[in-house]
Amino acid sequence: MWDVSRGKRMTRQCRACRKDDSLPTKEWSLDAQGWACNLCVEREKKIVNIEKELKKLKAKVVTGERDVRRMLKPLREVWLEVGIEKLDNHKGVTVKALLDSGATGIFVDKKFVEEHGFRLEKLD
Ligand SMILES: [Zn+2]
Questions:
Q1: Which residue has the higher pLDDT, 46 or 5?
Q2: What is the DSSP secondary-structure string of 13-43?
Q3: Residues 19 and 47 in one domain
Q4: What is the pLDDT of residues 80-104, one digit of tens each?
Q5: Ligand 1 center from residue 20 Cα (angstroms)
Q6: Which of 1, 79, 100, 111 could be a cystine partner for 21, CB 3.0 to 4.6 Å?
Q7: Ligand 1 midpoint to CA 14 (Å)
């Protein structure tokens, strides 16, 4: 891309994905941290929203991206450290759980249940 007013080549590079200035002008955003392509800007907004949700849940990201706000790389998975409690004796177990895997319910591994001595009840 050429900056006509100055007659020299612009060096625009996305601070996140490192895409260069071959993208059309309207595909770019500039803020205090520099240039970013709009795809990365959208991704950043999503990450900030996830971070807010996690704060509401008082949850902690234990793997995945460490510094969610600063990093613009794709957030592939979010693992949470959660406490689960046995209904019969109220003993707790801390476990890492995957957030929003697209599952339609809450599932737990059979082996995990057996190893931690959860009592199972047959559902109808
Ligand atoms: Zn980008």
A1: 46
A2: --TTT---TTS-GGGEEEETTEEEEHHHHHH
A3: yes
A4: 788 888 888 888 888 887 776 566 7
A5: 9
A6: 1
A7: 5
